[in-house]
Design a protein that fits this description.
The complex is a heterodimer of chains A (363) and B (176). In chain A, 62% of the residues lie in helices and 15% in strands. Chain A has 363 residues and is of the alpha+beta class. Chain A folds into three domains: 74 residues, no CATH class; 149 residues, no CATH class; 43 residues, no CATH class. Chain B has two domains: 93 residues, Rna Polymerase Sigma Factor, Chain: A (Orthogonal Bundle), CATH 1.10.1740; 66 residues, Winged helix-like DNA-binding domain superfamily/Winged helix DNA-binding domain (Arc Repressor Mutant, subunit A, Orthogonal Bundle), CATH 1.10.10.10. The chains are: A alpha+beta (363), B mainly alpha (176). The interface between A and B is large, with 42 and 56 residues.
């Protein structure tokens, strides 16, 4: 859009009558100008919000500070993490065996005959089973075995899984659960129940499926629990007999009879519960649980220890992620307030402009 | 055309407040006279403008505009404050029944031809200031738009309307 120009006559008239300050005003302004400008700015002007140029400096500076702090923290933490990683590597087998122990139900009953072959030894590498695993004497025992064997390849995994299942069936057991994965990450995890008397045979057979990487066998005595349950059963049966004898007498009042019948009912309920517990414990003692993991060398390989630079970068990335999370949280909290403040500021600005326009039109 | 010459102490030295005040005094006064139509008020507001400018002088950034535009912005803000205060005063006087007629308050534009004075009286303050800035002080469209906080198009529109009114008034007077 071209700017409108006044006619030459009007332009000449306007410029010719250009106002000039009077000598008094000029003297007054010179007097003002002769004063010293204030050396310090008022507090309110020092606290003004940063201009756009300020934002252009502050935002990159904050980003640089965030990255630098992440880098420093990453470097500092990479030292400790490396130590932790090395410790983790050396105790890998122990942790694995502890994990297996945790899988066993936590009970206060004594554990007998725990055999750990987590760190492959010459014996386990050769496929030999640890000492005698069969329950000792006539005692009821819970036998739990966890073992990991390594086979050549994916075909070996499937083949070993089939052999393990066949062995279980041959020994009179059954498969409680199984998971067989083929392909690049081939592995199999099979949980079988084997008659306790044949657990030794089962472990030997399963050990022969490949090279043993780790093996743990827990034997937990259940005889004490079983004896206690049987004693309580005998006691309950005796009490039932007494109550029934009293109920057969004819000298009971209605209230006494009702109380005895209620007592008889609760005793019979307890007896049923005890019988189920005895049967369950006996069944637990009859069958041993064996969990077999079959994997290939690729699957069982321990991940290489990352370099100091990799660890530092990982840690720095973690710190940056956390910084971003914190910044996002602050933003989420502050955003509504900022929007309200912005709306108030814009509204005030709009009002001032309209007010100015109104004043300039009215005068 | 009026050129502002500023006294500087060296090729790269920043102008002093005194030199800026000396060089821009007529521009500030002229602008305020156009805006207020009252030479006494314009003189008071000019003094107030330079008082304010002296207090803010340390905050003046030459990269963001010329000293003249900076002073004119302060003058405009000072004049708008005066208009607000004057409006409130008039309302109070009207409520009290002591308000004087507007025409008696305004003085004539000193040194203006009667034709121009009559024409300027028909313009609003907003139209007078755009004439003062664009034609009398010779600011360009962009600088005027920044000062008035409106778009350059709005500046052109307002100037066109003001000039049309002035031309019309001058033609009318010629015919008469």
């Amino acid at each position: 859009m071209t700017s409108p120009e006044p006619s030459p006559e009007l332009a000449a008239l306007l410029r010719a009558s250009r106002p000039a300050a009077s000598p008094e005003l000029r003297a007054r302004v010179r007097e003002i100008a002769a004063r010293q400008a204030p050396k310090t700015m008022p507090l309110w002007s020092r606290l003004r919000l940063p201009s756009r140029r300020g934002v252009l400096v502050v935002v990159p500076a904050a980003a640089a500070l965030a990255i630098a702090s992440a880098g420093v923290l990453g470097l500092a933490r990479s030292d400790g993490s490396g130590e932790a990683t090395r410790q983790l590597d050396t105790s890998y087998g122990q942790l694995e065996s502890q994990g297996a122990q945790k899988a066993v139900p936590q009970e206060t009953s004594p554990v007998y005959g725990a055999t750990d072959a987590a760190t492959p030894s010459a014996a386990t590498r050769s496929g030999a089973a640890p000492g005698s695993l069969a329950p000792t004497g006539d005692r009821a025992q819970r036998v739990t075995a966890t073992m990991t064997v390594e086979v050549e390849d994916s075909d070996g995994v499937a083949d070993s899984a089939q052999k393990a299942i066949a062995l279980t069936q041959r020994l009179g057991g059954y498969v409680a659960s199984s998971s067989v994965v083929t392909g690049d990450d081939a592995n199999a995890v099979i949980t079988v129940r084997i008659p306790a008397a044949r657990v030794q045979e089962a472990v030997s057979g399963l050990s022969a499926l490949g090279t043993i990487v780790s093996q743990q066998i827990l034997t937990q005595d259940l005889q004490g629990d079983l004896n206690q349950l049987e004693r309580r059963e005998r006691s309950v049966r005796a009490q039932i007999a007494v109550v029934m004898a009293r109920l057969e007498s004819e000298s009971l009042t209605a209230a006494q009879r009702a109380a005895l019948e209620a007592r008889l009912g609760s005793l019979r309920t307890e007896l049923r519960t005890l019988r189920r517990a005895i049967a369950g414990t006996s069944a637990e003692a009859r069958m041993a649980t064996i969990q077999l993991a079959v994997m290939t060398p690729e699957g069982s390989a321990v991940a290489p220890v990352p370099s100091r630079l990799d660890r530092a970068l990982d840690e720095a990335l973690n710190v940056l992620v956390w910084e971003a999370v914190v910044a996002l949280a602050i933003l989420i909290v502050a955003l509504p307030f900022a929007l309200v403040a912005l709306a108030v500021w814009l509204g005030n600005r709009l009002y001032r402009r309209r007010e100015d326009d109104r004043l300039l039109t009215a005068n | 055309m009026h050129a502002v010459s500023l006294e500087v102490t060296g090729p790269t030295a920043a102008p002093t407040f005194a030199s800026v005040a000396e060089g821009c005094l007529d521009d500030v006064y002229g602008y305020l006279l156009y805006l207020t139509r009252n030479s006494a008020v314009a003189e008071d507001l000019t003094g107030e403008t330079f008082e304010t400018a002296l207090r803010r002088w340390r905050r003046f950034d030459p990269r963001r505009g010329t000293p003249r535009a900076w002073l004119l912005a302060i003058a405009r803000s000072t004049a708008l404050d005066w208009f607000r205060a004057d409006g409130r005063r008039r309302k109070r006087e009207e409520r009290a029944g002591t308000a004087e007629p507007r025409s008696s308050v305004d003085e004539a534009f000193e040194g203006f031809s009667p034709v121009l004075e009559a024409g300027l009286r028909e313009l609003t303050a907003g139209e007078r200031e755009v004439v003062a800035l664009r034609v009398v002080l010779d600011l360009d469209g962009e600088e005027t738009a920044r000062l008035l906080k409106i778009s350059p198009t709005a500046v052109s529109t307002r100037l066109h309307r003001a000039l049309a009114k002035l031309e019309e008034r001058m033609r009318h007077d010629d015919v008469a």
